[in-house]
């Protein structure tokens, strides 16, 4: 018995401080509303983590930037102030993994199927692996569908973007493709977008229907184009010291909870966005526009040089090449 206790003590000596207290608290911070694919996914994870660990782990979800805004949440993960995040792939440059931005390339995925195939394949896996040297564990990808774009004037042809100040979330790729259209992209935290649109700090923005609906962007944008020009996806990430230091049984239970929460989130993302778009339409404050095949082709042609520019900007020609080959 003494021997067993000694072995047990040794095994947990390194993490004893972290996990001595029960329940183990896991802070999960994100910037969107609860009523979105990511919001619902994080709440499902909270519920499943409680169930599978028998209450030994308590997940606290902080939605809507209530705890941290975009840039701050990355710092908080690094310092261990939070344990879990789910930032979009547009937000990994500040931690030194700009390769994620390849996923933001315009018109790269052939619909939902093209996206799903890519993320489940070697590109998805290799991107998550790049987080390891940064002290981060990549756990999963969560889907949030395709971007729309909006302003107080209709955006149908590239020329309509001339001189338009557009909010982007951080990706150099979005910066490049909006510049190709003649717009002036500007990075702003997600929590600041509504006010920036309302006060004219920026003229327009891009996002998915679920984010437009829950953040009420349709109140301050007269025209929304359902352009599907780029895809919004999240990498769910954990502080590595925390995750790898968890007792193996708890880590296994949390991994199971994460796998199921991921399947759930990815299964609802499409319909959530269909429903949000229907609500925006029904609300009637903003006019929805859909691109004709000719208009879409004009966007594709205008943005095409971004594929070449991306090779140096995302730090990996290989990823861009692989993506162009596999995403169709
Ligand atoms: C944005 O900043 O526009 C998005 O990344 C927000 C989100 O997490 O969906």
Short description:
The protein is of the alpha/beta class and about 325 residues long. Helices cover about 45% and strands about 20% of the residues. The longest helix has about 35 residues, at about 250-285.
> Helices and strands, in N-to-C order?
HHEHEHEHHEEEHEHEHEEHHEHHH
Small molecules bound: (2S)-2-hydroxybutanedioic acid
Shape: globular
N-to-C span: 60 Å
- How many β-strand stretches? 11
Widest β-sheet, arrangement of strands: 7-6-8-5-9-11
Number of helices: 14
Supply the helix-strand structural class.
Answer: alpha/beta
Rg, rounded, reads 21 Å
How would you sum up the major sheet?
6 strands, mixed
How much is the average pLDDT? 93
Stretches where pLDDT is under 50 for at least 5 consecutive residues are 1-14
Task: Report the sheet-strand fraction.
Answer: 15-25%
Indicate the percent of residues in helices: 40-55%
Structure explained in plain terms:
47% of the residues lie in helices and 18% in strands. The protein is built from 14 helices and eleven strands. The chain has helices at residues 2-13, 16-19, 37-52, 70-79, 111-120, 122-129, 172-180, 193-199, 209-214, 240-245, 248-283, 293-303, 305-313, 317-326, and strands at 24-29, 57-62, 84-85, 136-146, 148-151, 165-168, 184-187, 204-207, 223-226, 231-239, 287-290. The longest helix is centred in the last third of the chain and has 36 residues, at 248-283. The N and C termini lie far apart (60 Å). Bound molecules: (2S)-2-hydroxybutanedioic acid. The site of (2S)-2-hydroxybutanedioic acid has 9 residues, from loops.
């Amino acid at each position: 018995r003494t021997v067993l206790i000694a072995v047990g003590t040794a095994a947990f000596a390194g993490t004893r401080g972290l996990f001595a207290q029960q329940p183990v608290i896991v802070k999960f911070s994100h910037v969107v509303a609860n009523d979105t694919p990511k919001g619902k996914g994080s709440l499902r994870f909270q519920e499943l983590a409680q169930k599978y660990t028998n209450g030994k782990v308590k997940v606290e979800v902080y939605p809507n930037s209530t705890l941290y805004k975009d840039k701050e949440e990355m710092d908080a993960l690094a310092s261990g102030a939070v344990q879990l995040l789910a930032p979009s792939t547009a937000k990994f440059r500040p931690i030194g993994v700009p390769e994620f931005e390849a996923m933001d390339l315009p018109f790269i995925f052939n619909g939902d199927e093209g996206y799903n195939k890519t993320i489940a394949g070697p590109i998805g896996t290799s991107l998550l692996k790049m987080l390891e040297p940064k002290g981060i564990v990549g756990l999963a990808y969560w889907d949030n569908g395709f971007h729309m774009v909006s302003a107080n004037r209709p955006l149908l042809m590239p020329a309509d973007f001339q001189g338009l100040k557009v909010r982007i979330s951080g990706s150099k790729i979005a910066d490049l493709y909006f510049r190709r259209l003649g717009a002036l992209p500007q990075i702003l935290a997600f929590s600041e977008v509504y006010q920036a649109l309302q006060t004219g700090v920026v003229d327009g923005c891009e996002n998915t229907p679920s984010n437009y609906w829950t953040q009420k962007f349709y109140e301050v944008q007269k025209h929304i184009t359902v352009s599907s020009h780029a895809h919004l996806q999240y990498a769910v990430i954990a502080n590595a010291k925390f995750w790898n230091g968890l007792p193996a049984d708890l880590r296994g239970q949390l991994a199971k909870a994460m796998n199921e929460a991921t399947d759930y989130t990815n299964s609802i993302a499409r319909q959530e966005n269909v429903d949000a778009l229907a609500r925006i339409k029904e609300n009637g404050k903003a006019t929805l526009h859909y691109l004709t095949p000719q208009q879409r082709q004009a966007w594709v042609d205008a943005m095409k040089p971004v594929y070449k520019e991306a090779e140096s900007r995302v730090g990996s020609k290989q990823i861009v090449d692989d993506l162009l080959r596999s995403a169709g």
